[in-house]
Write a structure and sequence with these properties.
Length: 327
């Protein structure tokens, strides 16, 4: 038996509760993991509260991240005792995820944990840090360099935003951080931001083209914010779009793309090939200041996750929520 958060629904009810489950109930897969830590992400909060169409199969164990130790493997790629992490691949959405003490996954989903990361550190980074790294890699592949100018990070107080600031600063970029919490300016500057702007500058309907303000951006907000970010990106710049905190819509025009040559780079963190995942996680283990991780996160127990999900959606959480699934 193991403990997990299980979400289920009927025609009249939506429920998330802490449950004792039998390992025989785990989904099919070649690798069984004894989970040490998971996370509470925006997607997980939507799944737990039912406020977004995240869950695709019922019942579901949410949790799009997990880290732990292999207990059983039918694949030669992994052996009992291997430390692994899994993020994406539909776990917590269409396949039982990490907010549980046990998980069973397909053999091509895990990667070995970088040697210098603990399970707790890996989950402090989680999908948020991984997405931030994929976004940085996309801007680099586009050809942007620190000499090209400032890089904007929206949703700066969120998980992706904090890691994006830290990674960009580590790689020599000057970072503008957009936030709705001006009281957090000192925290954002401690991560590496050089300039703080109010998110209100970007969150309302704007002009098709604005003043050229930044060479590139990492946007986790979407909607009007993303439209305005593109409208104020310099000629031949690029915007990595990786989130939808404000909305799925994009009320923009083609003007930035055909008049300035701005590129919009979509970031898919769910189904990246394993080689790219390994590269991203190895870079994260080297390029993040691991001593900053405690300041960027708060640890909670599995039993606290259901309540914390509402706090996250209401914007009352700074940075990352790391979940110790064994308490």
């Amino acid at each position: 038996m193991f403990t997990a958060i299980l979400v289920d629904k009927t025609d009249t009810d939506y429920r998330a509760e802490l449950r004792e489950l039998d390992e025989a109930e785990l989904p099919e897969g070649e690798v069984t993991v004894r989970v040490a830590y998971s996370t509470l992400n925006y997607k997980d909060a939507l799944a737990i509260t039912g406020k977004g169409p995240i869950v695709r199969r019922w019942p579901m164990v949410p949790g799009i991240d997990l880290a732990g130790v292999v207990e059983h493997s039918d694949s030669p790629a992994y052996a009992p005792g291997d430390r692994v992490l899994v993020n994406g691949w539909g776990i917590g959405e269409s396949h039982w995820g990490g907010l549980a003490q046990r998980a069973r996954v397909r053999a091509d989903w895990p990667i070995l944990l970088p040697a210098n990361l603990t399970e707790q550190q890996a989950m402090t980074i989680g999908t948020a840090g991984y997405t931030a790294m994929l976004s940085l890699m996309a801007l680099e592949a586009h050809g942007l360099t620190p000499g090209d100018g400032d890089i904007l990070v929206t949703g700066a107080n969120g998980g992706v935003g904090g890691f994006a600031i830290s990674l960009l600063a580590h790689n020599g970029y000057s970072v503008i951080a957009s936030t709705g919490r001006p009281a957090e300016a000192d925290y954002l500057k401690s991560l590496g931001a050089t300039t703080i702007i109010d998110r209100a500058e970007l969150s309302e309907p704007g002009r098709p083209l604005g003043k050229e303000r930044w060479a590139g951006a990492i946007d986790s907000v979407g909607s009007h914010t993303l439209a305005n970010v593109c409208a104020s990106t310099r000629a031949e710049g690029a915007v990595a779009a990786c989130g939808m905190a404000q909305g799925l819509d994009l009320p923009a025009t083609v003007a930035p793309f055909i008049l300035r040559g701005v590129s919009l780079l979509g970031i898919n963190s769910v189904t990246q090939p394993q080689a790219k995942r390994v590269t991203a996680w190895e870079r994260l283990s080297r390029e993040l200041d691991l001593d900053q991780l405690p300041e960027m996160s708060r640890e909670i127990g599995l039993s606290e996750s259901i309540t914390a999900a509402s706090d996250l959606l209401d914007g009352r959480i700074r940075g990352r929520l790391v979940v110790d699934v064994n308490r």
